[in-house]
Amino acid sequence: MATKRFLTGITTSGTPHLGNYTGAIRPAIEASKRDDTENFYFLADYHALIKCHDPALVMQSRLEIAATWLAMGLDPERAVFYRQSDVPEVMELSWMLTCMTAKGLMNRAHAYKSVAQENIDSGDADPDKGITMGLFSYPVLMAADILMFKATHVPVGRDQIQHLEMTRDIAQRFNHHYKDLLVLPEVVVSEEDAILSGLDGRKMSKSYGNTIPLFETSKKLRKLVMKIVTNSQEPGEAKSTEGSSLFEIYRAFATPEETAAMAQAYADGIGWGDAKQQLFEKLDSVLSEPREHYLELMAKPGHMEEIMQAGAVKAREHSVPLIEAMREAVGISSFKK
Ligand code: TRP
Predict the structure, then answer these.
(1) Nearest-5° angle of CA 208, CA 210, CA 211?
(2) What is 215-296's CATH number?
(3) How many C-beta neighbours within 10 Å does residue 312 have?
(4) Is the entire prediction scored with pTM above 0.85?
(5) Percent of the chain topping pLDDT 70
(6) What is the location of CATH 1.10.240.10 in the chain?
(7) CA 270 remoteness from chain centre
(8) Best substitution site from 52, 61, 156, 165 to test ligand 1's pocket, by max atoms within 8 Å of Cβ?
(9) Closest C-alpha to 113, from 127, 98, 133, 134
């Protein structure tokens, strides 16, 4: 029997990019192929409402992210693959946890604090400008996602470590006050080299606008690759792979042999134009098959709907019994007993 239960979610508020794939989706799909783990992967669509109030964008992103997981090879038979919004027990749990969460704990959450700090830095009179209760309470919803399924291991980026600490804190409080129903999860931080740099050299992230989407047409993909920042070194000059986004992205998609050959080419003074062409060809060859699959899936939303609904049925086999036990524990169960 599997003893480790992995769970992770992706917020559906944008178009999936190379960094989402190497940092989250690829390792998760690999893990789902092993027999010694159980895997829960979900579209964090209620999280999307924290930062995106455009219904068309949220809808589009949900479709795109679902199609990406499937096109990249996630077998829904080997994982519980579902939409957060299809598991209403998560929202119910979120409230129970909210009532067990110290406001002071949330005051310390980076996600909210960084916006407040920006307001202060820009001289705004109101440090809470633009901060909704959704943003403020976001770690509680994330805790509910994790605790609902008794996850033991949660793979996330570094920026999410604090949320895992908060999740443990909240779970402990609940267990201590009511009943030992919640499992304290461990954080699994993505490996450093799975985190890609973007076009401008900073971490590839939607919030920096420096991403390369996974499923652009070949033509657009080539254009974007040509935009990756390099330096002013000429062809013939030896180049360093250290800190080169171009090299980093290449390495994330190439075999170790190909990567060694590229490192040699850098040392031998490959021109930036040639290196970019090689990166483009690599990405295009790795992504062309999944791209076709992705486009097919995007053209058949009804088919994806069926997959997601089947996933929700599996997810709720876990969430319904736990929420019943929790209702009982907090004093909100049937009158007739
Ligand atoms: N907050 C996460 C992020 O922005 C996404 C997420 C939501 C998540 N719920 C989760 C990740 C539960 C892991 C487990 O990356």
Answers:
(1) 115
(2) 1.10.240.10
(3) 21
(4) yes
(5) 98
(6) 215-296
(7) 35
(8) 156
(9) 127
